[in-house]
Amino acid sequence: MQDNLDPSDFWEHCEYARQHYVEDSPTGETVARVEASLGYRLPAAYLELMRSQNGGSPLQKSHHTSQPTSWAEDHIAITGVFAIGHSKPYSLCGERGSRFWIDQWGYPAIGVYFADCPSAGHDMLCLDYRACGPRGEPTVVHVDQGRDFAITLVAPSFRPSSMDSSRITPSTAADSARLDISVTASASQNEAPH
């Protein structure tokens, strides 16, 4: 994750997010319990971001994609990022957490669903562990229920940072602030599982 991330530059402060997404900063015990429940080790950058604020709505709501999705020709939109915890509806192990989308909506069991989109469940962002195993460094994918659960690569790793606004087309200029899940592969991507 980028050094010296200022949470006020990343997170939108709104009552809806506080009620449905944001939990207390995760303790080591909480992280261990959530990872055990999910069956996956969470990326270090995700843990670091959640220590700045545990879940919520990002100020930057869109991310560029190289392939069209049901949302747009050149980007996806994000409503919220799930907290590491159990108590809020949109936390990783909450009422509408990762397992809910797999068990109730039929999303493929490829990893951890960590962010929802404005479609109210018809597309999601997932940490995809298929290539790396449950303890490796996952890619980030967009899974589109409306397109027979089509999977689109968003980034080779999870890494919040600012994006170059030149990557957004004029049709999406009003939505130019967005969440970048970095296209810079991390060195740990090639590590063997621990």
Structure description:
The chain is of the alpha+beta class. It has one domain: SMI1/KNR4-like, CATH 3.40.1580.10. 19% of the residues lie in helices and 21% in strands. The chain has 5 helices and 11 strands, in the order αβαααββββαββββββ. The strands form 4 sheets. Strands 5-6-7-8-9 form a 5-stranded antiparallel beta sheet. The chain has a two-stranded antiparallel ribbon with strand order 1-2. A hairpin with a 5-residue loop joins strand 8 and strand 9. The longest helix has 11 residues. It starts with 6 loop residues before the first helix and ends in a 13-residue tail after the last strand. The relative contact order is 0.18. The C terminus is likely disordered.
Total separate domains: 1
Straight-line N-to-C gap: 21 Å
Instruction: Round the Cα radius of gyration to an integer and report it.
Output: 15 Å
Q: Give a count of the beta strands, DSSP E runs of length 2 or more.
A: 11
CATH class call: Alpha Beta
List keywords for this structure.
194 residues, alpha+beta, SMI1/KNR4-like, five-stranded antiparallel sheet, two-stranded antiparallel sheet, 19% helix, 21% strand, disordered C terminus
